[in-house]
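Take the subject:
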Amino acid sequence: MLNKLKRADEDMLLENLSRRGFIKVTSCAALGLATLQASEALATMKASPLVIMEKAAGMIVGDPTLCVCCQRCELACTEFNDGKADPKLARIKISRNAMFGPEGGLENTTKGIYGSGSLVIQDTCKQCPHPVPCATACPQNAIIAQKGTGTRMVLKDRCVGCRLCQKACPWGVMTFDEEQGKADKCFLCNGAPKCVDACPAAALRYVPWSDRTREATTRGSFSLMVPDDRRAACNACHVESPGGPRNLKYEQ
């Protein structure tokens, strides 16, 4: 009798162990599958090129007839963004165009202060619509549209300092910090641009966004190098043109 009870207890114990083992094995399998799926999804996200479709909410525009070339806007920009007064890092470009007239300083090497008029053209980021040249050129997906404002901004932790975004910008308004080895651009100070507030002549305004890329004069030479994965992803609706890739759907 005791042997039968002992055998029955052993059978019950083995059954319980088998059930727990089965549950444990299936749980581990489910967890492993979920982890694998998450890893695959993450790999897909990393492999997929970032394409900015949304438009920015606002932009900065300048009035050359009011600008007195005091460069306070450049100082305000770098003091807010970089914690120091360093005009060469400014996201708004004033000093390079001083006295060079409407054509700006990058394309005019013979006149400038010696005879091209008193107009100072304020070069500001156009917050380009799709396709965004600087973002399209970036192989690291380091230039995104900021949530809420749609402003194109650089994620410093992704930037590797390749400077392809600088080469791609038709207006030369990308900036590069040599000390950090990082690119940067105007992100409108999160919707409250300091350059606009600092201008004593009211020569800068923060206005609702509109596409000014077609009317603005380009600055110097630029070259848009599109990474292979992004080019393949965009071929369905883009064509090559002298001004960089343009979207046929938006031009119809």
